[in-house]
Every structure is written in C-alpha cells, then in structure tokens.
Amino acid sequence: MKKIKLLVVLYKETTDTSETILSLKRIFSDIFIDANFELFLWDNSPSAQDLNSINSLRKECVGLSEVRYHHDATNKPLSYVYNAILDLYENDDYLIILDQDSSFDKKFIDEFLSVIRKDSPELILPIINFKETIVSPSIINYMKGHYYQVTPYGYTDLKHLSAINSGMIIALGYIRRTGFRYHKDLINYCTDDYFMREFRKNGHSVFVLKYKFEHDLSLSTLNDNSSSLKQRYKLMKQGRYVVYSDNIIDWVAIRAYFLLHKVYMAIKYKDKDYLKV
Q1: How far is the C-alpha of 273 from the C-alpha of 276, rounded, in Å?
Q2: What's the CA gap between 15 and 50, in Å, rounded?
Q3: Closest alpha carbon to 238 in 194, 189, 192
Q4: What is the separation of C-alpha 236 from the centre of its chain, rounded to a whole number of angstroms?
C-alpha cells in the first residue's frame, strides 16, 4: 500500500475557512482502500488553531490515517517548512503539496491513484487555472516563462516545463535518489521555481493529469495593479535571484532580465514605481 503524505501550510486561516482544508474534508470523508494518506498541517499563523477544530478535522476525515498539526508563530520560510517535511517523510512514497486556498474534489485523488497503480513518475502535476488561464504547468525558456495554449497531458517533456507548488505531487524516491532540498535562502516565493529548475536537471519523468482545479495567484500579471502586487513582485525578484545563483553567468543574467522586466511592468501598469522595485 502506497504511503501518501499531504502537506498544507496555513497562515491566518483556520480549518473552517481554508478552501484546501474544506476540500480535504469532503474528499476524506471516505476511505481509500489502496493507499494510506496522512495529513500534516503546518500552521505559520500568529495564533494556533483551536484544539477542538483539529480534533474535529480528525473525526471528519476518516480517510486519513493521521492528522498531524504543528504551530510555529515565527512564520518559518516555506523553504524551511518543505525541507523539514522532506526530512520527516523521505522514506515514504509521495508528497502532495497544497496551498491553503485551492479548491478541488475527489477526482484529483482518484486520477492520481490511477496513475501510480500503473507506473511511477517522479513528478505528477494537475492543471491549475487562474482567471480562465492555465497557469500551471507552464513553459520556461531559461528565465522567461509562457503559458501553454494547449495543455499537455500524460508523460511530458520536462526540458522546458515549469509548475507552481499547489497540487504538485513529488515522488519521494526522487528525493532519496537526488538528495534534493530547497535552497535555505528562499523565503516564501520561488520555491516552486527552484524545485522545477532542479527537476529539469535531475528528474526522469513527469506526468500531467487531466484534472483541473482553481487556485488564486497573489502574484500574477493577470491581476490588477496594487501596492500589494508591487511588494510581491519585489519578493519574487529576490527569490529569482536565489534560484539563478549557481554561477556568475546566471547571476548576471537574472539581474539583466529584471532590469528589462521592470520596464515592462512599468509600461504594462503605467506605474513608474516598478522601476524602483
């Protein structure tokens, strides 16, 4: 029986308000007979969840063999959280990473299980929509990303493939084989960029599900301009500097890229403040 771990990182959400937790409650009200699922809730919120709500979640989710809850009010970086989880579960089979604000149903889990009954891809990805646009998986050429017009399904060439964290299913055999860990200098942006860049170098296979779900992207040029968008853009830029820090060529190239990209953002949003980000 496959051992599947689910990770949800919460921040200023509860088990009654998080779209992801609500989805999991609906899905795991039933038992999956051919896989063992365990949920790890890492809570970075200032205040811990009420113990009764965690116990209620355990009772509702009879399809989860265990619900583990960890609260850390210091708001640890995602790279720290993900590495801690990889250390804890490295010897199991699959890790499903979920953000707190994704909505999906049982078909996501059913399709995932149907894939691993037949084969063992090292990475499995759902289709993620945001504002009627397919935002994951996506295409990347060195540093420049593009959205797919027609999304690939099944086994996919990973040479130019990128994806976001939410819904990402990582074979822990890949983690054991490569010793992968997230760069400790990453904070809360670009952990997915870093994972995918390393996976393009070292991964053997990626499978794209037909299943689609909605996910809210806080940082996207599909959003309207705002001070919040500018702040997230700055954090993303800092994260990309870490991702492309392997050598001097990458170090120079990413800074040159953002010199041009800030001009693009200033023109797109008619806001010269992007030039100062």
Answers
A1: 5
A2: 9
A3: 189
A4: 15
Measured over all CA atoms, what is the biggest interatomic distance in the chain, rounded to whole angstroms?
57
Per-residue pLDDT of the chain (277 residues; tens, 9 = 90+): 899 999 999 999 999 999 999 999 999 999 998 899 999 999 999 999 999 999 999 999 999 999 999 999 999 999 999 999 999 999 999 999 999 988 899 999 999 999 999 999 999 999 998 877 888 999 999 888 888 888 889 999 999 999 999 899 999 999 999 999 999 999 889 999 999 999 999 999 999 999 998 777 655 545 677 787 888 888 889 999 999 998 999 999 999 999 999 898 888 888 888 888 8
**Placement of tokens 């039933």 in the chain:** 30
Secondary structure percentages of the chain, helix, strand, coil, to 5: 40, 25, 35
Going by DSSP bridges, is the β-strand pair 169-171/123-130 parallel, antiparallel, or unpaired? antiparallel
Tokens 């037949």 belong to which residue?
118
Backbone φ/ψ region at 192: left (φ over 0), alpha (ψ -120 to 50), beta: alpha
> Which residue's entry shows tokens 């990347």?
140
- Rounded distance between C-alpha atoms, residue 109 and residue 118, angstroms: 15
Distance CA 30, CA 43 (A): 25
Tell me if 103 sits within 8 A of 214, measured CB to CB.
Answer: yes
Residue with tokens 């860990």: 181
How many angstroms separate the CA atoms of 142 and 249, rounded?
12
18 vs 181: CA distance, rounded Å? 27
The distance from CA 130 to its chain's CA centroid, rounded to whole angstroms, is: 14
